[in-house]
Recover the amino acids of this structure.
């Protein structure tokens, strides 16, 4: 499976100087759980729902007055577009992340893979396999 087919492309992005309110608006407008934080075309971090809860709401910061750069996650796991879906899922589980930016060799963000989309796609693939196997055995009549 090509991860770019299930990733959010183009990625939803904000700059590090954007306010938390602007980032949250982008997340809501595009129905995503995180935005890539980009400066000069390069990934600087990611800002997620978890950052909103732990670093803004919990600390009682004002979203309109708080810069994304002050509360984003700086160390971001990234993956290449060629990575296998199973490897991406394993990385997400092992590292406890729900959003993986897909980057090219220059660090340009091509898309963001969200665990919800990855799991949905994997479930659809499994359903297709099960249906195919079921059809095979159901079509095999008496005498084989």
């Amino acid at each position: 499976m090509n991860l770019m087919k299930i990733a959010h492309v183009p990625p939803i992005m904000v700059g590090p100087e954007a306010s938390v309110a602007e980032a949250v608006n982008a997340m809501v407008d595009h129905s995503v759980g995180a935005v890539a934080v980009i400066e000069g075309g390069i990934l600087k971090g990611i800002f997620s729902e978890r950052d909103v809860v732990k670093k803004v709401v919990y600390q009682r910061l004002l979203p309109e007055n708080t810069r994304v750069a002050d509360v984003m996650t700086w160390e971001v796991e990234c993956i290449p577009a060629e990575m296998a879906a199973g490897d991406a899922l394993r990385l997400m589980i092992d590292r406890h992340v729900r959003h993986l930016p897909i980057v090219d060799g220059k660090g340009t963000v091509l898309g963001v893979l969200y665990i919800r989309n990855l799991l949905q796609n994997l479930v659809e693939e499994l359903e297709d396999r099960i249906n195919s196997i079921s059809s095979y055995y159901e079509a095999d009549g008496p005498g084989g």
Remarks:
- The first strand starts at residue 13 and ends at 14.
- Helices lie at 3-6, 20-29, 49-57, 68-71, 85-95, 115-139.
- Residues 42 and 108 are 5 Å apart (CA to CA).
